[in-house]
Write a structure and sequence with these properties.
Radius of gyration: 18 Å
Oligomer: single chain
Strand content: 5-15%
Shape: globular
Distance between the termini: 17 Å
Structural class: alpha/beta
Length: about 180
């Protein structure tokens, strides 16, 4: 039902010539889970670029000078934070990226931390050796993924206020689908 209402609203906006502009903001997402959340919130307004495709571990990935310059030109850089993307976190706010502070979704309102997992495919020593006191894979908790989507919508709305209502609606659709 919600999709029918949205389709009707878009049709009316087209007829009235009041269709929201496509986002012109340049967005980068650190890893696939963040990319998925941010892409869902952006919807048809654009697609974030993926920084780390999975071939490199986000825990120790290093970046070329051209990647660092690219980060500095983005309007927003989304990352998990909480120590997961250690080297990327060290760049946040630095002169290398023009002082840009990256959006750490793990620090968003409503995101809860969990103890480091053990057993199965989870090796406790992996994160303890990195000095992480809690499990940085916060998106694995559906409630956290919802809170991260809301935080992404808030950051996108601040960067692109003309489309704030669309970001909010897309975040709501994402959280409902979870």
């Amino acid at each position: 039902m919600n999709r029918w209402i949205r389709a009707l609203a878009v049709a009316i906006a087209c007829l009235l010539g009041n269709l929201p502009a496509r986002a012109e903001v340049k967005i980068i997402a650190s890893i696939m889970p963040v990319h998925s959340i941010v892409a869902a919130v952006m919807g048809d307004l654009g697609k974030p670029e993926l920084l780390l495709s999975g071939r490199l571990s986000e825990h120790a990935a290093s970046f070329t000078p051209s990647q660092i310059a690219h980060l500095g030109k983005a309007d927003l850089v989304f990352m998990v934070g909480g120590g997961l993307e250690r080297k990327l976190g060290q760049l946040s706010g630095s002169e290398a990226v023009n002082g840009k502070v990256f959006v750490e979704l793990a620090r968003g309102p409503g995101v809860k931390t969990h103890p480091i997992r053990e057993g199965g495919g989870w090796e406790k020593d992996d994160h303890e050796n990195e000095g992480l006191p809690v499990d940085p894979h916060v998106w694995l908790d559906p409630d956290n993924a919802k809170a991260m989507a809301d935080a992404a919508a808030a950051a996108l709305s601040e960067a692109d206020p003309a489309n704030a209502a669309i970001y909010a609606a897309n975040a709501k659709d994402f959280t409902t689908s979870l």
